[in-house]
Input
Amino acid sequence: MELLGNPEMCFGCGTENPVGLRLKFTWENGDCLTRLHVKPEHAGWRGFLHGGVLAAALDEVMGNAVWKADLRAMTGRFTVRYRQAVRVGEDIDVRGHIDKVGARIIRTTAEARRPDGTLVAEAEALYIRTKVGPEG
Output
């Protein structure tokens, strides 16, 4: 796993955040991939994954695809569409990639699927290029 920026306390990928998701990333043809194992502490309602946790994982794969491409940017707009509920105990594969790089805006998309390929959520985001990254 390659860590980008200064991620120790990042909620999504931080290795030192005791309440974070601690996602680990792999790379395939420019796409960022991770697997989210849904734990009881990720629940929202009666044993189902909280949508905000899934949104965080989707944002993480898109953001890391941006950083892996050596682009410095931060999320400017994020939209998610939930397709199916996810239960505690499930594993969800999350994949994100860059669709278009502009002078100021980077367009990205991501999707979350069960290991059998069933789509559970999809997202798109606009990242705004910055001169300075989160590390300062």
Q: What stands out?
A: The helical segments are 51-68. The mean pLDDT is 90. The radius of gyration is 14 Å.
